[in-house]
Amino acid sequence: KAEIETLENERRRIASDLHDEIGPLLSAVKLQINNLETELDDDRQLIVKSSQYLDSIIKRMREIAANLMPNTLLRKGLRRALDELVASNSNLYNLEIRFTCEQEPKLDQNQEINIYRIMQEIIHNTVKHAEATCLIVRLTIENNVLFLFTADNGKGFDFNAKNRENAGLGLRNLQSRADIMGGEFSCRSEPGKGTMLTFEIPL
Q1: CA 62/CA 66 separation, integer angstroms
Q2: Cα distances (angstroms) measured from residue 23 to each of 1, 14, 41, 74
Q3: Spatial separation of the C-alpha atoms in residues 130 and 137, rounded to whole Å
Q4: Quick check: helix, strand or coil at residue 195?
């Protein structure tokens, strides 16, 4: 728990530094470059290209800052933050993500952050390892327990062998997040049959 709290605090600090310090500096550099005047075509093209590069850097920096600590999660809650996470990753990768959430879960901020990080990890693992084209995510609440269920149509893996090898940092991260919320995590996967993950988090 202490390790995860330290990690989240460091993410907040880095996100704040990127947004409040590096962002304005890059914007100032872009403004100065655009104000340069020259009569040489090669120099004008160089200025345009440099400005475009800076636009790409600023955009990517904002994406990194949002991944480190999404403002939507802090301002508008878990449901809206997950909607944005799903939309941005669906557009970025060739992965159809079907997300359903029947009601807005009432969680404290630590729980919201942990559920959000779990979703980030699952999407990352699906994109990086599963070779899936579809990921189903369902978030429900029954009898004061939050259930998070995911299933993909990817290549799957031998879950028991992974555990015996003590491999898979992503799986250990998911287990740790579930543990600190007093919840349970289970995984079902076989080669060629995709992967199903279930989390049960008491509220």
Answers
A1: 6
A2: 32, 12, 29, 20
A3: 15
A4: strand
**Closest by CA position to 99, among listed 127, 137, 126:** 137
Q: Give the length of the chain.
A: 203
Q: How many Å apart are CA 37 and CA 16, to the nearest integer?
A: 34
**pLDDT, position 169:** 67
Task: Say if CB 164 and CB 147 are below 8 A apart.
Answer: no
Pairing between β-strand 145-152 and β-strand 184-189 as defined by DSSP bridges: unpaired
The DSSP code for 127 is I
- Give the neighbor-by-neighbor strand order of the sheet with 184-189: 96-101, 134-142, 145-152, 195-202, 184-189
Residues 178 and 200: their CA atoms lie apart, in Å, by: 8
List Cβ neighbours of 156 (8 Å cut-off, separation of 6 or more).
130, 189, 190, 191, 192, 193, 194, 195
CB 89 within 8 A of CB 123: yes
How many whole angstroms separate alpha carbon 126 and alpha carbon 59? 24
Of the candidates 127, 120, 57, 72, the residue with the CA atom closest to the CA atom of residue 95:
127
pTM of the complete model: 0.74
Mean pLDDT in consecutive groups of 10 residues from the start of the chain, 203 residues: 76 79 87 88 90 89 78 83 90 89 84 92 91 95 94 88 65 88 93 94 93
The whole-angstrom separation of Cα 32 and Cα 140 is 51
